[in-house]
Amino acid sequence: MRNADAYTIKHQSISSINLMEKAAKAFVKVFKKEVSNKESKISILCGQGNNGGDGLAIARLLDDENYKNVVVYLITFSTGQSEDNKKNIKRLLKLKVPVTIIKEAKIVKNLQSDVLIDAILGSGLNKPLQGDYATVATFVNGLKTKVISVDVPTGFNSEGGIAEKYNGIKADLTICFQRPKINFFCPESVKALDKFKVVDIGLDENFIESQKSEWKLTTESEIQQLLKPRKNFSHKGTYGHALLVAGNNTTMGAALLSASACLHTGAGLTTVCLPQSGLTALNTALPEVMALPRNQYLAMEAFDRFSAIAVGPGLGVEEENEELLEKLVNLRKPLVLDADALTILSQRGDLLYELPAQSILTPHMKEFDRLFGEHKNWWKRVETAKREAIARDLIFVLKNQYTFVCLPNGNVHINPTGNPAMASGGMGDVLTGIITALVAQSYSSADAAILGTYLHGKAGDELAKERFTVSASQVVLQIPKTMKKLLATD
Ligand SMILES: NC(=O)C1=CN([C@@H]2O[C@H](COP(=O)(O)OP(=O)(O)OC[C@H]3O[C@@H](n4cnc5c(N)ncnc54)[C@H](OP(=O)(O)O)[C@@H]3O)[C@@H](O)[C@H]2O)[C@@H](O)CC1
Ligand SMILES: Nc1ncnc2c1ncn2[C@@H]1O[C@H](COP(=O)(O)OP(=O)(O)O)[C@@H](O)[C@H]1O
Predict the structure, then answer these.
(1) The model's pTM
(2) For site-directed labelling of 386, which of 123, 234, 250, 446 has its Cα 20 to 30 A away?
(3) ∠ CA(216), CA(219), CA(225), 5° rounding?
C-alpha cells in the first residue's frame, strides 16, 4: 500500500497532503453514517505521523460538517512529526476546534466522550507498543466509549503473527484505506477490532493490481468469471460422476449432507460409498443419489468410473477405513480429503506424503494442527499450509470465518463470504460435497476450492439476512439459487 501511495502521488500528480485529504474525506463519509448525531462528543487522538495527520484532517472536516463537540488530543510521546501532520495541524489551528497537547498518558484515562477516533499510530507501526503508548491504549480500552480507528487500530500490525498478548487499542470499527490488512482475516484480530470497512481513497488500482502479491481476496466478479453455465444439449454424463466415501453408523448424516450438497451443486451423478446400515436412510432422503455399499472386498476397479472422489465426512477412523483410504490414495487420482480422512492421515505420515498431486484437503484448525503440529497463531498456520501446498502440489482449504485457500503456486485466496450464523455441525460436510461436485464437473482443483468455498459462504450469507442461525441442510438447498444469481448478474 505504501508503494501504491508513492506511485499515485508520482503518476497521478496528486501531492501526499491531498492524498491524506482524500483519505480523511473517505473516512468522514463512513463516519457520518455511523455517528449521525452532530451533538455527539467526539475526541480525536492523533499521533505525530501520517495516521495522526489523517486524524487532524478528519477533525477539520467534521467541524465543516457541523459536528459541534469535536476535541483533538495531540499525542507527543515521540520526537519526530511528519510533514503532512505539520501541515494539517496548521490548517486545524485556524479553526475553533480545541487542541490539547498530551505529554503524559494519564490524561486519556478520564476522557469524557461518546465517540473516540483513534489516529495515533497506523500502518507505520514498526515495533510493539511500549511505555506511554501502551498505557494510552489500556486507558482507551477502559473508557467504554465507542472507538473508531483510522486505517488500523493503534498497536495492531497489518501482517505477521498477532501477538498473543495484544496490548493495542480495541476498536469497535476500523475504517481502513483502499485494501483490508491481511491480519484482519486472522481470528486473533478479534482482540483488536470488531468489524472493519474498507474505503476507496483513490490510490492507483491498476498499479495495486499489477503488484506481485501472493494474497488474493476473492471477489464476486472473479467468481462470476469462473462459474460455467449449464450447456445446451448437455446430459448427466456432461457433469461428471462424483463419489463420496463417507458415513458411519452414528455419523450417517455427514454422508447424506455431503451427498446432498454434491447433488445440488450440479454433479451429473452422485454415489455414496457408505456402510450397509446407511442404505435405507440414503434411499429415503436422497432418491437421486446412488450407493456403493462399503465393505472390505471393494476392488480398486470399483472406483474407476468416478470423475471425482471425496473421502472423510463421518467416515470413522477404524482400521478398515484406514485401509480404504490407503486404497484410494493408491488410485493416484486427486482426492478431496476431509474430517476423518484427515484424522487418519495425521496418524499415517507415510500416506500424507504420498497424496496424489492436486488433492484438496479441507481441514479446520484442529485437523490442520493434528496433521502438521501445533501452531502459535493463524499466520504461522497459513505459512505452513503455503509451504506444504507448494512442496507437495496440494490445495489446502484452511477453514474459518475467512477461509484461506492455499495453492501449489504459493497464492493464498482469502474467502470473504460466510458468517457466524453458519457455525454449526455439518457445515464442513456440505463444503466437501460442493467442492467434489465442482471437481466432477471438470473445474481444476484450485478453481473448485476457490469457487466452492465462495459459494458455500455466499449461500450462508444470503440465508443469514433473514435468519439468526443457518443449518447445513438449508445451505445445501440455497446453493442452486446462489449459483443462478451469480450467473444472472454477469
Ligand atoms: N498509503 C496509504 O494508503 C495512505 C496512508 N495514510 C495514512 O498514513 C498512515 C501511515 O503513516 P506513517 O507511515 O506516517 O505511520 P504512522 O502509523 O502514523 O506511525 C508514525 C510513526 O510512529 C512511529 N512508531 C511506529 N511504531 C511505534 C510504536 N510501537 N511506538 C511508538 N512509535 C511508533 C514510527 O516512527 P519511528 O519511531 O520509527 O521513528 C512511525 O513512523 C496510514 O495508516 C494511514 O492512516 C493516508 O494519510 C494517505 C494514504
Ligand atoms: N463463523 C463462521 N463464519 C463463516 N463460516 C463459518 C463460521 N463457522 C463455521 N463456518 C464454516 O463452516 C464450516 C465448518 O466446517 P467443519 O468445522 O469441518 O464442520 P463440520 O465438521 O461440522 O462439518 C467451514 O466451511 C467454515 O468456513
Answers:
(1) 0.93
(2) 123
(3) 110
